[in-house]
């Protein structure tokens, strides 16, 4: 439960986003344990909306290898639907898989990849 990659726009609230991501990991664990073993065997676990706050909505996704993705979206953005969030998580998962296939990447290290940054930035520009 330690972040490998965090990106936020705007950057002035970065500490607030760190806190939000860390607190949402507890909700992810609760949802996984509530689902039980029946859904653990699936290929992916899209957890959906973890919790809304006044300013943000927090979404979660867990892979079958227990890698957790957390996305924080502005609450005022009503254009994002559940299917779009799900497809964004799939893109994120595919890019993460590409990084893990790199023989020079040590699992557990922070992610420093230009291709991953480009993909995340393009997703963030789509949302904004």
Automatic annotation (TrEMBL):
Keyword entries, A-Z: Cytoplasm, Endoplasmic reticulum, ER-Golgi transport, Golgi apparatus, Transport
SUPFAM superfamilies: SNARE-like (SSF64356)
Principal cellular location given in the protein's record: cytoplasm
InterPro entries found in the cross-reference section: Longin-like_dom_sf, Sedlin, TRAPPC2L
UniProt subcellular location: Cytoplasm, Perinuclear region; Endoplasmic reticulum; Golgi apparatus
GO cellular component labels: endoplasmic reticulum; Golgi apparatus; perinuclear region of cytoplasm
Top-rank taxon, per record: Eukaryota
Biological processes annotated in GO: endoplasmic reticulum to Golgi vesicle-mediated transport
Family in the record: Belongs to the TRAPP small subunits family. Sedlin subfamily.
Record-given protein name: Trafficking protein particle complex subunit 2-like protein
């Amino acid at each position: 439960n330690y972040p490998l990659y965090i990106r936020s726009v705007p950057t002035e609230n970065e500490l607030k986003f760190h806190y939000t991501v860390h607190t949402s990991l507890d909700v992810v664990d609760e949802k996984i344990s509530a689902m039980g073993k029946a859904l653990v065997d699936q290929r992916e676990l899209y957890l959906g909306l973890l919790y809304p706050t006044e300013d943000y909505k927090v979404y979660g996704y867990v892979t079958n290898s227990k890698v957790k993705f957390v996305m924080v979206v502005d609450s005022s953005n009503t254009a994002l639907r559940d299917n779009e969030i799900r497809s964004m998580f799939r893109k994120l998962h595919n890019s993460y898989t590409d990084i893990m296939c790199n023989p020079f990447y040590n699992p557990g290290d922070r992610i420093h990849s230009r291709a991953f940054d480009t993909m995340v930035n393009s997703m963030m520009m789509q949302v904004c």
